[in-house]
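Listing S7. Sequence submitted for prediction.
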Amino acid sequence: MLLTRRVLGKVGLANGPIVAPKNLGGDLTQQIARSVVIGMTFATPFYLWHFYTFRVVGGNALIDRITNLDQKAQWNRIRERGILHLGDEHKFHEPASWQVGYEKFAEQKAEEREIIENHISTYGIKLGPHGYETPFDLLTA
């Protein structure tokens, strides 16, 4: 027993005293800081995209609804001026009455409305409490 203890004790120190690994003291905080910086670098563009896509647009719309009581009149004023604010152009594609192409647009809308009314009268579609109801609709409420 004394022999094995003596031999095993000398094996570890055969090449001199054991040296502690380099960069062990204080390296954990540097690694944590480095991973936080990398995470923030990659997360910041996604956060900014989310913030300016959803939160700012929704917040501006809410403030606009609060400050302008007559929304329909404001929308008609904006449309008649031919100015649509950035971000609103996907909601509405109708030219103002003074713009070029308004007559053609009005004709197309009248034809479209005529087709819709013809379709409604032909197939017996009626407007119910939950929207349009057709004879083909089996799951009406």
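Caption to Listing S7: primary sequence and predicted structure tokens for the chain studied. Residues 126 and 133 are 5 Å apart (CA to CA). DSSP finds four helices and two strands in the chain.
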